[in-house]
């Protein structure tokens, strides 16, 4: 499993009162990095040294270039990829840093717009320029959107420390498992539940919540035996709950995640794809992950458009 060094679980757990609205990314790209000295929760990568790449910025649609902002839709409740700092306003995480780095390459000011995960796709191309929020690349999503790969993340189960109810990830039938609404893991649990019933066993009791904060809280509180989430999230929880949670069973079904862009916007798709490739080629993307304590092997080295999955 990947060991996540980011801190600040308290901010994540209190997000139940902050499920929507906008998140502050600072008046400049270096604001989050400057604030990091005040809180160990903020391991943000300083993107201020990243220069605009004119050849890539020239690919932007005129409307976006003239506006001067890069609007990114994200569910700011999924540490360590995207979550709120201890002020419950500032968006931080490795996806947030990557978004700001893309903005720097494109010569744009990045603006993170927060919403619940399940509502993000509906706003791509209208409310948001792109979606960057741990979106697993699936054929269903690529049928409606362009997706640009940038990281590979698996799934893991996390339980209360010591696994007091002897949860077995290989035997989920009849178990109560928490998951975030709209995620790939929710779909996977539904499929597992159907298979359980087909095999004559009890269905999985799936508890779906709008935020990962609620998911984590309900496992710690004993309402669910385990939660199922991206491996980075499960590792983060096990490391940051003061010994209350741990990952069991390792990592399953590693798959690429991608930046979501409207299919109708070929210019923006090309610009973002080339900007992401630039971050990869320059070693900036792996440095961002390293800043957050994420295993650099999770980083992809090719920003592939609509890869085969």
| CATH architecture call of the largest domain | 3-Layer(aba) Sandwich
Q: What is the highest CATH level, the class of the largest domain?
A: Alpha Beta
What overall geometry do the principal axes of the alpha carbons give?
globular
Give the spatial strand order of the biggest sheet: 4-1-5-10-6-9-7-8
CATH superfamily of the largest domain: Periplasmic binding protein-like II
Give the count of helical stretches.
11
* Topology order in helix (H) and strand (E) letters: HHHHEEEHEEHEEHEHEHEHH
**Helical amount:** 25-40%
Low-confidence stretches: 1-21, 26-40
Gyration radius from CA atoms, angstroms: 19 Å
Q: What structural class do helix, strand and pairing data support?
A: alpha/beta
Termini distance?
22 Å
Average pLDDT for all residues: 86
Q: How many distinct beta strands?
A: 10
The number of distinct structural domains comes to 2
Estimated share of beta-strand residues: 15-25%
The major beta sheet can be summarized as: 8 strands, mixed
CATH names the topology of the largest domain as: D-Maltodextrin-Binding Protein, domain 2
């Amino acid at each position: 499993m990947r060991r996540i060094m980011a801190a600040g679980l308290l901010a994540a757990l209190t997000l139940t009162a902050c499920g929507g609205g906008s998140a502050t990314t600072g008046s400049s790209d270096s604001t989050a990095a400057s604030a990091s000295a005040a809180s160990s929760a903020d391991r943000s990568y300083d993107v201020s040294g990243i220069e605009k790449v004119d050849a890539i910025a020239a690919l932007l649609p005129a409307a976006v270039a003239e506006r001067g902002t890069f609007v990114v839709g994200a569910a700011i409740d999924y540490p360590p990829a995207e979550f709120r700092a201890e002020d419950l306003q500032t968006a931080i995480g490795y996806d947030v840093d990557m978004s700001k780095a893309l903005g720097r390459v494109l010569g744009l000011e990045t603006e993170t717009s927060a919403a619940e995960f399940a509502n993000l796709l509906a706003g791509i191309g209208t409310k948001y320029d792109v979606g960057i929020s741990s979106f697993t690349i699936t054929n269903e999503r690529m049928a409606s959107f362009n997706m640009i790969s940038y990281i590979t993340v698996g799934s893991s189960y996390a339980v209360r420390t010591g696994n007091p109810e002897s949860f077995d990830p290989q035997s989920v039938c009849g178990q109560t498992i928490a998951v975030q609404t709209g995620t790939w893991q929710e779909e996977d649990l539904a499929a597992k539940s159907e298979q359980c019933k087909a095999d004559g066993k009890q269905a999985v009791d799936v508890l779906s919540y709008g935020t990962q904060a609620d998911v984590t809280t309900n496992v710690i509180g004993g309402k669910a035996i385990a939660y199922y989430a991206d491996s980075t999230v499960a590792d983060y929880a096990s490391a940051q709950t003061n010994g209350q949670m741990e990952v069991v069973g390792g990592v399953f079904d590693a798959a690429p995640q991608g930046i979501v862009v409207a299919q109708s916007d070929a210019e923006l798709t090309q610009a973002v794809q080339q900007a992401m490739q630039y971050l990869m080629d320059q070693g900036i993307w792996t440095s961002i992950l390293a800043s957050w304590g994420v295993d650099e092997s999770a980083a992809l080295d090719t920003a592939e458009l609509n890869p085969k999955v």
